[in-house]
């Protein structure tokens, strides 16, 4: 028994006389579904529905300030975030938050939660941690099996793209901001635990039929406005301890992914050297259409690094810049919509910093390893930049 929306899709296509469609074809979903796991970088509103602190929510102005959405949605940006652009390039509608009432799962689901970490200890009780995000995915999988039958559900699950943007909160609040954790584990051991838990999450999704994975690696955390402002040492410099943890994480995780590709049949993935890409925008903003790579558009204090954007937190005073598009950073922790868009383009079309597959290949099922020459020959790549 198919749910009624399949018939609606078919009917609409017949009326419009479409011969080819990305989403519906003869009543079947033919596009890859998009499942999103992560933290505030990709939360599209799940935290609107949990009880947490204002630091973990963005459903108040000036979030959503650029008017793309009618009102603040819970996205930590003045507009859209990277997964919104990726969905657009994949010709999918916006992917709804899992907790949004009456959300439809037909094109995928966003499980992400601002403040979440890979470890359950990170911001415990205030966020939907990764394990719980996976439990939510399991509910969606069960309902897919009920709706489509096991065989077709398995096809859908193997064609879907599973994306992860998570880990920063483990190193910031979970470790550097948590003396107890530092006493229990040295940095190397802590990174090992985080990577171990992330690897388990991937293996669990693989065991449930997931084959295509996308990862946003960690940025140079120490260069977030909030950590520049906290840096006890260099005036205006990046907080190197934070960046070092993120880089150790990225290095360890790259090796894990290379191993999984050997060990797991048909496992394919897109990873990115996000920190190198972002550092270039922080250090040379003018080369990428920005005017300021260091200061937050919304916040107060040095670098806008005191996280008061919106005035809902302990301190109610905040400043808002005139043109967010001039800035890499929207608030003390999060980038602007323009940065999100450039990142989505990078992941979609690929570059030497993205691989072994780009997102276009994962979504289209064209699992030919990414070759740099493809990009150079693709005129839309130049255009998009
Ligand atoms: C996962 O994290 C927990 C701490 O929450 C840790 O005890 C455990 O060893 C980690 N698992 C792996 C496989 O690293
Ligand atoms: C905000 O204030 C509350 C209550 O005074 C306090 O418990 C909390 O730690 C403060 N949060 C921050 C981020 O300063």
What can you see in these coordinates?
This protein is of the alpha/beta class and 385 residues long. The protein has a single domain, classed as Rossmann fold, CATH 3.40.50. 41% of the residues lie in helices and 11% in strands. It contains 14 helices and twelve strands. The strands form four sheets. Strands 4-3-5-6-7-12 form a six-stranded mixed β-sheet. Strands 1-2 form a two-stranded antiparallel sheet. 47% of the residues are buried. The site of one 2-acetamido-2-deoxy-beta-D-glucopyranose has 7 residues, from helix 7.
List keywords for this structure.
385 residues, alpha/beta, Rossmann fold, 6-stranded mixed beta sheet, two-stranded antiparallel ribbon, 14 helices, 41% helix, disordered N terminus, disordered C terminus, binds 2-acetamido-2-deoxy-beta-D-glucopyranose
State the gist of this model.
It holds the Pfam family Lipase_GDSL. This protein has helices at 4-16, 82-89, 130-148, 150-159, 168-176, 179-184, 187-207, 225-230, 240-263, 274-283, 337-349, 359-364, 372-377, 379-384, and strands at 24-25, 28-29, 34-38, 108-110, 161-165, 212-215, 268-272, 292-296, 298-299, 319-320, 327-329, 354-356.
> How many DSSP helices?
14
Number of strands: 12
- The SSE order reads HEEEHEHHEHHHEHHEHEEEEHEHHH
Please give the order of strands in the largest beta sheet.
4-3-5-6-7-12
Strand content: 5-15%
Separation, N- and C-terminal Cα atoms? 45 Å
Q: Structural class from helices and strands?
A: alpha/beta
Tell the overall outline.
globular
* Sheet of most strands: 6 strands, mixed
GO molecular function: lipase activity
Family: Belongs to the 'GDSL' lipolytic enzyme family.
Keywords: Signal
Pfam family, one: Lipase_GDSL
């Amino acid at each position: 028994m198919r749910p009624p929306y399949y018939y609606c899709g078919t009917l609409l296509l017949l009326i419009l006389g479409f011969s080819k469609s990305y989403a519906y074809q003869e009543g079947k979903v033919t596009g890859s579904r998009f499942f999103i796991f992560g933290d505030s970088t990709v939360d599209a509103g799940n935290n609107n529905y949990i009880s947490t602190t204002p630091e973990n929510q963005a459903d108040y102005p000036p979030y959503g300030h650029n008017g793309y959405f009618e009102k603040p949605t819970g996205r930590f940006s003045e507009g859209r975030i990277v997964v919104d652009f990726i969905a657009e390039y994949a010709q999918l509608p916006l992917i709804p938050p899992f907790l949004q009432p009456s959300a439809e799962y037909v094109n995928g689901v966003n499980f992400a939660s601002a403040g979440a970490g890979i470890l359950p200890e990170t911001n415990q009780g205030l966020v939907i941690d990764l394990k719980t995000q996976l439990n939510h995915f399991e509910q969606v999988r069960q309902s897919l099996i009920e709706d489509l039958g096991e065989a077709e559900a398995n096809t859908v699950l193997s064609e879907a793209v599973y994306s992860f943007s998570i880990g920063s909160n483990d190193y910031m609040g979970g470790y550097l901001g948590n003396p107890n954790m530092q006493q229990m584990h040295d940095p190397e051991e802590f990174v090992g635990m985080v990577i171990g838990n992330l690897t388990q999450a991937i293996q669990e999704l693989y065991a449930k039929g997931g084959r295509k994975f996308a990862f946003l690696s960690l940025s140079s955390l120490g260069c977030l406005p909030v950590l520049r402002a906290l840096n006890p040492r260099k005036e205006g410099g990046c907080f190197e301890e934070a960046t070092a943890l993120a880089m150790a994480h990225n290095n360890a995780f790259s090796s894990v992914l290379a191993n999984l590709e050997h060990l797991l049949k048909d496992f394919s993935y897109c990873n990115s050297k996000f920190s190198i890409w972002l550092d270039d925008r922080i250090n040379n903003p003018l080369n990428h259409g920005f005017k300021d790579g260091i200061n937050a558009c919304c916040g107060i204090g040095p670098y806008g690094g005191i996280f008061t954007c919106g005035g809902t937190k302990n301190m109610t005073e905040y400043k808002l810049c005139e043109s967010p598009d001039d800035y890499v950073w929207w608030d003390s922790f999060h980038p602007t919509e323009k940065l999100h868009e450039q990142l989505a383009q990078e992941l979609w079309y690929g570059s030497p910093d993205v691989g072994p597959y780009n997102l276009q290949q994962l979504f289209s099922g064209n699992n030919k390893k990414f070759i740099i020459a493809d990009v150079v020959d693709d005129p839309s790549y130049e255009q998009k930049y």
